[in-house]
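QUALITY CONTROL LOG
STEP: pairwise intake check
CHECKER ROLE: data steward
CRITERIA: each record must contain a sequence immediately followed by its structure tokens, with no blank fields

ENTRY 1 OF 2
RESULT FIELD BELOW
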Amino acid sequence: MFETNPFAALSASIAPAVMQAYVVLMIVLVAAGTLFDIVHKGSARYLFENWRRSKGKHVGAGEVVSIGLKTAVVDVLASGEFCNARRRVAHLLTMYGFLLHVISTVVMVFSLSTNTIWPQLWWLGGLMVLVGGYWFWFFIRADVVAEGNSRWRVMHADVFILSLLASVTLGLVWAYAQARGSTWSQAWFALYVIATTVLFGSVPWSKFAHMFFKPAAAFEKRMSYANGTRSNLPAPVDKPEQLGRIAKHARHY
């Protein structure tokens, strides 16, 4: 089961061209949804105008490259914006699992390869998503009960994580059922397609586009520190220097 391409077996009932066209359609939906989100919310215009109006010191090309590398490594690859260790681990599991799952899906759909490494990566990525995603949903996310709301309350911000968990869960269940020769495999596959369509088709209303916007925002923030435009603003309260100021101020009074 872990070494068999589930989409290769599916090609006996669904033409490979149809599966490939569906993958292309999902990519188009993500691109179009992200562009719509950027235009509708004005994210790109805000970052550009904020950067253009900044009157800080000149930042050299070498420092810009260094800031770009730090943004990629710390903020993107290591999710450095999360100060809470549990949230960071859950986010990293979900992010890298999602990348593994999606990339291996595309490879298996377009090549229908019998190479065992891609099914293994597909399962590994899916299981990483489930561990990180369900851990976040049930144990880490905002304490809605403390706010007087139901634990099962769902908002627009939850569409991405819920549709992602549904897509991956149903995909793995379908692959398992297909490997076992279950008569329910087609029903599981239909549900898998529906959940996946919701995941990639709901970009303008979910947090999916944040994965493209957040690196740009992190880069802009680091640039503002480098050119001095944030020097007169208070540091975040989780920064040691800010906590020191608060403690000193409290002792004074």
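ENTRY 2 OF 2
RESULT FIELD BELOW
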Amino acid sequence: MGQKVNPIGFRLAVNRDWRSRWFASKKEMPEFLLSDVKIRAYVKKKLQLAAVSKVVIERAWNSLRVTIHTARPGIVIGRKGAEIEKMTEDISKMSGGKQVKIDIVEIKTPELDAQLVAENVALQIERRISFRRAMKKAVQTTMDFGARGIKIRSSGRLGGAEISRAEWYREGKIPLQTLRQPIDYGFAEAMTVYGKIGIKCWVCHPDEGAPERERPERPQRERRDRQDRGGARRGPGGPSSAPSPAATAPEAAAPEPAAETTEPAAV
């Protein structure tokens, strides 16, 4: 059996933070937890086209703060803030009449957000685009935006096949066992005609604190002609055993100097 851990839960309190920030007694814990699940499902359903990455919920004594991380804040706010007011009322009813405040955080580069990348691939599969094409395009786009590595895995009845299978693509480095590396993880489901297809995405972000080291350039060797590299090949018939015809041609063509005579010239 494969033993895999959620990369976000694995890095909690190291370089990740909780998405529900509150403390409750044993009696209130189930009620708060169920309320958080309902709020996240409501926000995801209402803002399907707003590219919502995550929803952070903070609770105080009688107040609730909901922070929505989205790539399209204009859709969330709506015209003259009408959408925000409607969502505030609905979330207040779901939380038992508590005072609700909604904050919006814009995601500058959605191509580096694993959840948005997975949802983008799922949306393309639902539109009957080839899963291979969608995955390869997502990998290339993410790497172009400066990610250290990306891995995408889709499983299910791919292409409408009778037997379900899984295919994945990876580029760059994805060290899932290292806590120092900021690995982002996302999961989405594509509701196709022939069943559900699950998409998982891992993205390795560059370290924000330490600048990436540049690799030293290798010294380039001077290229020489093949005639100059006579001693490179050894063996019978090689250039080391027999001289090349190009090298012997000038010697054969040059005329030999005349022999000097020691006899005195006749008078």
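INTAKE CHECK: passed for both entries
DESCRIPTIVE NOTE, ENTRY 2: Helices lie at 7-10, 29-46, 73-77, 82-94, 114-126, 131-144, 245-253.
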